[in-house]
Write a structure and sequence with these properties.
The protein is an alpha+beta fold. It has helices at residues 9-26, 115-123, 143-154, and strands at residues 32-36, 40-45, 48-58, 61-66, 78-85, 88-98, 103-110, 126-131, 134-139. Helices cover 25% and strands 43% of the residues.
């Protein structure tokens, strides 16, 4: 007669843990993605834009917001933000704005002046944003479609 394999409790837990890790590795992390509604495009966590966001300001002008820094800056002060897409650095002059529990750095300019930066973000794999109070990295998966929709909607 053939013996049936009955896993021990430890083996069953190990199998379930392995399956859970495999599912977690293939699922998007906490609903993070790039999206656009035409007038706004950027990285989102859940339903909120965060990290790096583009907004149409007026005819042919855009505002680029950098959020997620751990420190607080004095509102109105000018700062330099360096956004490195893969191996290419983009230097933007930005103004600190109060954002409740922290600061947002905002850079304004024309859509044409930001075209190289936007194109690099569309084609890149990741971006590292560095400012006066910290740095963070964002994946660029999905940024191509989101930023293409933005440039069409804002142009």
């Amino acid at each position: 007669m053939t013996d049936l394999f009955i896993p021990s409790r430890r083996s069953a837990l190990a199998l379930w843990a392995g399956a859970a890790l495999l599912l977690a590795a293939t699922a998007p992390a906490l609903g993070q993605s790039w999206r656009s509604d035409g007038a706004v495009a950027g990285f989102t966590a859940g339903s909120c834009f965060t990290g790096l966001t583009f907004r149409c300001a007026s005819a042919g002008r855009v505002t680029v917001s950098f959020s997620g820094f751990p420190g607080r800056l004095q509102a109105g002060q000018a700062h330099t933000v360096v956004a490195t897409v893969d191996d290419t650095a983009f230097v933007l002059e930005a103004i600190a704005r109060d954002a409740g529990s922290g600061s947002i750095l905002m850079a304004e300019g024309t859509l044409a002046a930001r075209a190289g930066f936007i194109e690099a973000l569309r084609k890149g794999r990741s971006v590292e944003v560095a400012g006066p109070v910290g740095r963070y990295s964002l994946p660029l998966t999905g940024s191509g479609d989101a930023l293409a929709a933005f440039t069409q909607g804002c142009g």
